[in-house]
Amino acid sequence: MGNRLDNLQALRGVACLLVVVYHAAGIEDLFGLGFRPLRPVQWFGYAGVDLFFVLSGFIIASTSRADLGRAARLPRYLFRRLWRIFPPYWVALVPAVAFAAYSAQPVFGPGWPAEWLDTLLLLPQPGGCRFLPVAWTLSYELMFYLAVGGLFLLPRRAAVPALAGWAVLVVGLAAAGHKPGNRFAALWVSPYVLEFLAGVAVAWRPVRLGGRPAAGLVALALAWVGVGSALVFRPDPTWLTYTHHLRVPVFGPAAALAVLAAVGWERAGGRVGWRWLQRVGDASYSIYLTHLVALLVVLYVSVSVGWGHTRLPHLVWIAATLTAGVQAGLLFHRFVERPLLALARRKPRPAAEPAPPARIAA
Asked: Which phi-psi region, left, alpha or beta, contains residue 348 (left: φ > 0; alpha: ψ -120 to 50)?
């Protein structure tokens, strides 16, 4: 099948669009309208992040499993993972910081050296990254990359026990209600770890699924989310977003079932035919990094020109907002992310061999 799974790219596209619409719904709330078409997405749109975490676990396990236990491969693994995350993130920080300065946020406020160090290195920040709020998820991504990197230093047979032990530790601490005070320790025992590990579990035992079993898994995933959401329902649509010990059980298993269905169906020859969704999935990291600034720019422009928000103008505003959020990421992917990834793959040309000395005729 090669290294690319089209269905996974489409699923990444779904996760990405969920996050974009979720943030657009949050901006829509600022208008205080009675007509809010995006409001329903606030109850589940943030689950795109949970889907991203499961997908990350699957992808890292799939691409790295053969190298586990081979310490000599660790530097290459770490370079590829870190290069994948940091350079595009640093470039995306530039317009985010510029917009913060334009909107009169203090770029260098009290304690700015520590804040900037945390921001540039994607270290966990209690209040999140002010300039690029979505960056909190990248701290989890890096943590998981380092955890998998540690498996390169262990015998390969130790990988499953180590990951299973990690899952048991996370579940045990959550059941006991223990919350570490240290920000780094909290990262390693967060319930989100279980979503990464669910993706690893899906990757560890490849399966093939026909169309009906795959559709059944998707239906089961939707039913799981529906029942779980009903059981923990609160009138505040953002409540579950920050209640991690309930959010992960509601959305994590469903995300794992969706990934299993998408991968298993493609292994059996089935593919999602929506190329546009795969294209969004290809650019999902770029869209994730840039969409918030794009959404806020549209908000500022619309307020500046006195954009009306009766029904039809508001629907046009929604279309313009979502288009800007996605299109900015597509452009960033084309002109920033892809060239950066190509730069990392470029191999130095071997030095030309010296020409043999010319023979002198007698």
From this structure: beta
Section 257-275 average pLDDT? 95
Task: Identify which of 16, 1, 8 has the alpha carbon closest to the alpha carbon of residue 284.
Answer: 16
Residue linked to tokens 């977003």 = 241
Cα angle 244, 248, 250 (rounded to 5 degrees) comes to: 120
**Residues of the domain holding 136:** 6-345
- Quickly state the pLDDT bin for 359 (edges 50, 70, 90): very low
The length of the chain is 362
Domain count, the chain: 1
Residues 147/139, Cβ–Cβ less than 8 Å: no
| pLDDT tens digits, one per residue of 95-126 | 999 999 999 889 998 899 999 999 999 999 98
Q: What is the distance between the alpha carbons of residues 208 and 227, in angstroms, rounded to a whole number?
A: 28
Residue 316 lies inside a defined structural domain of this protein = yes
CA separation for the pair 203, 314 (Å, rounded): 43
In a domain, residue 354? The reply is no
Cβ–Cβ under 8 Å, residues 202 and 256: yes
360 within domain boundaries:
no
